[in-house]
Design goal:
mainly alpha; 2 domains
Length: 264
Amino acid sequence: MKEVIRMAEQQVDIVGISASKVVGLIGTLFAFASGLSLMFTPDIVFIICGIVVFVLSILLMIAINVFGLNMRRNIPYEWWFLLLIALGLFVFYIILFNVPFVRAFGGEDEEGILGSVISNIQNFLSASNGGSEVPILFASRILLLLSIIFLTLACILRIMSEKNAKVYNSSKVVVLTGVIWAIVESIILILSSNVFNIIIGVIGIILALLLILSIPPNIKLPYTWWFVLIIGFIYFILLSPYFEYTIISGALVLVGFVLILMAY
């Protein structure tokens, strides 16, 4: 199994780090920043959780071998390690920021079940609890959500490298994840009652379809760094303001752009 992993990473690795570690490092940096920002909040619970998140990010850095030390033997960079940390951060996210999953299917909400589900999905995507928030907590919330997504994606890429020694295009996996996220955000906008929101949602869907069509090699749409960069930047401009600047879809697509430049 170790030989399979080594062969898979050597076939795509030309810069000294695998695609999974690139994505994992980005998620680690988000977790590091989130832990730091939580430690500067006035609430003791947030401070304690921030310390834990900060320590977890340091462990991830050691596993990725960011510091160039030989300590990573004791902290394996494996899919299960990434998954455990991502799940742990997700639990912190729910506890600290009171993500309202359960309310979607209960209570006497005038919106009805469908409206409540859509509202709660939008709250989750926008990292919002629907009220005013201290700016540092708002930043911590977004950073923590981004770290969960990128670490989960790094886990998936790691599993793919273990299951198949053939070359697979990691950038396309990341871009496709960003496209799926953008489609969900666009559908939420289309289901709103605002005409301008509907127009933005339709544009988001069209851009997502263009990216999807560029992925198969037999279609003439260019899957190139500049094409992915343009669409990722447009997602930043169009979708982020409607989801309180969580930048998730745009961030995922732009990380795919980075992986293209790194020949993944």
